[in-house]
Amino acid sequence: MHNATFWKYVPFLIFSLALAARVIVLLQLAHNDPGFDEPMVDSRWHLLWAREIAAGDWLGSAVFFRAPLYPYFLAGIITLLGDNLWVIKIIQALMGSLTAVLVFLLARRVFNRHVGAAAGVLWALWATAMYYESEFLIPVLAIPLNLWALYRLAGAVRDKRLTPRTALWTGLIFGFSAIALPNILIFVAGFVAWAFWRFPLAKPQRRLLWVPLCAMLTGVSLPIAVVAVRNAVVADDFVLIANQGGINLYLGNNRQADGLTMIMPDLRADRMGDWSTFTRITDSLACAQAGRALKPSEISSFWTGKAIDSVLAHPGVELGLLGKKSFYFWHGFENGDQGDIYRHVENSGLLQAGLWHKVIWFPLGLVSALSLWGMWHAWRSNRQAELLAVFILVYMLSVIGFLVTARHRLPVVPLIIIFAVWGAIRLWQVLTEKSSWTVKGSAVVSLIILLVVTNVKAFDVGLANDIQYHYQQGIVFDRKGDLNRAMAAYQRALAIWPNHFPSRHNLAYDFYRQGDHQAAIEHFTWALGARPGDAMALNNLGLAYRESGDTAQAFGAFDLALRSNPRMIETYLNQGDTYRSAGTLDKAEAAYIAALTIDSTFGPAFNNLGLLYIDIDRRDRAEEMFMLGTKNAPDYPYCWLNLGALFLETQRPDFAIGALSNFLQLRPDVAAARVNLAMAYLSTGRVSNARAQLEQVLTEHPDNAQARALLEQIINQGK
Q1: N or C: which end of the chain has fewer CB atoms below 10 A?
Q2: Of the ranges 304-313, 365-374, 660-669, 704-713, the best mean pLDDT one
């Protein structure tokens, strides 16, 4: 009775252990990792996308590039609970803890409760899982969905009965998983084939499985259909889920692919940038090579075709690459695709204790070997275990078809852990039971061979990405305004690779921001040696020359930038500002107008053109430009600010109140605007409103002399 009571509480104990570990990790990362509150690469992309959705853009306006469920999940949290990164990370920690319970339940159903408890505890403390759950990445949502669906299927296999209702609801879970990570669809197809071949029913009865399997496929298709209809409605293009598949296939299968990193033969590595930049460039490349504008579905097909062409042109090379990626899949090395995961976990003592390399790649180098051993022995005796093995092997195809990274492999790791626990128990039984030394010896030898395979340093195993790690640290410090630490991080990256363009460019820009324009010029020039003709580097070089007083060199750099990218509106703006400072106002006007010809919503050009017209005392034209700026770029604040100042100057305080109020909605921290608003209120006799504005300024800026003088004037007048 006591034993039964204990097992009843095991799921709660596993959940509690997992949650405690995850909270400790979050606290350690928050204390030690400067990037904890500054997500990078995919995490940042997902979060920004979620914020756009939560801000009201629930439908969007283009075909989904990536499966949308996870960003919508984040958007739901933001909408209901606010935009707080800690709230999101705690919810993800709760989901990770629930996943540990699902691992226990699935392992118990397939094997027994002892295997379940050990597997659940392992996942509760699995460092790679905890690390990715602290980021904003898709596996935190996809993994529990997959485990839930597998738990239901394992029950059907155990009961030798798959009802249409069970199949429909299981398919629906897989459907939601598919709009998070479409890879799961390859398993759905594999399960259908396996069910007709191996489901534990007599062959005549197995033929009747088409009814529940059709129900399952119906369930899978429902969430996908919603996404496909949405894509068709907003973009007039037929894309089932997202159009990322083609470019992903090409990134993993081209003449330069290595199986661990994203390699694009058509682009230099330092030009790939974030996903937004990358997709814009690769979409343009596809259209340019096709010789016409392409829809998103056609772009995906284009890159798929390029991947197939590469495979067919070099089938032997591709076969070798697939073999290498299969080796990576089972190896213990955790390849961090967007940074060196072994460097990141140094920020948490608990993570570092659970992920390291000393002789073996712990823990996966040990777990993978035991899992392969256990899978081989369980396959022949347990049909439910066979189901899980099919999931691993079929899902593996979707991973080795792209890149083998810790994140992409993570959805199968819970099942690998389950087989490893069963394998360890079974191995102990073999070694302790009364069996021949031949049997015992073969078991030990086979495990040793597997341990060698899963831990040997071959090919690019152990590939470090210290450059990316230091570069990302620099970006984090830049965002926090800590230029000295940012520059030190970029310099550490450059010590490894002096021609790493992004680090060199960002270091140069930080010198520019610090006012060391000569150092900025030197480093921008060096960066351009690594990437000649880069429009942004040339633009920023022009800024550095301008601030150093060398306007001739500045104009030369701006001209080169515009030759490289004639549609670079920021360069037209900077060119116009330089002409304006030099007193060449006709050329400044032409530059601003050129920017607006390219982008009629570019607020800074409207604003600076308006200021130029004030310089030449054409206030009617200035007002027109500011008004156009507020209309075409309502979220750009400074057109509102300068329009308000112009209204105040021309004795139109009511209009000034409206314009300055709009500015302060966008930039409530600007004290000068609040003082101007108070002056406008005073001009209309609204003293209490003026007083409220001045008091707010003095609360935030007690030393603001203008606000204090106006407030004292109001008080002295007894108002």
Answers
A1: N
A2: 365-374
H-type alpha helices, 160-252: 164-178, 184-198, 203-206, 210-235, 245-252
Report the b/e string of 205-237 with b at 16+ CB within 10 A: eeeebeebbebbbbbbbebbeebbebbeeebeb
Position 5 pLDDT exceeds 90: no
Nearest Cα to Cα of residue 390 among 590, 155, 193: 193
User: How far is the C-alpha of 353 from the C-alpha of 350, rounded, in Å?
Assistant: 5
Using DSSP, state whether 361 is helix, strand or coil.
strand
Q: Decide if 600 contacts 632 (C-beta within 8 A).
A: yes
Spatial distance between the Cα atoms of 100 and 106, rounded to a whole number of angstroms: 10
The predicted model scores a pTM of: 0.85
Here the tokens at position 21 are 């570990």
How many CB atoms neighbour CB 118 within 10 A? Answer: 21
pLDDT at 14: 97
Task: Say if residue 422's pLDDT is above 90.
Answer: yes
Question: For residue 248, what are the contacts with CB-CB under 8 A and spacing of at least 6?
Answer: 402
Q: Which two tokens stand for residue 439?
A: 């049997």
Could you tell me which residues are beta bridge partners of residue 356? 362
DSSP conformation class of 411: G
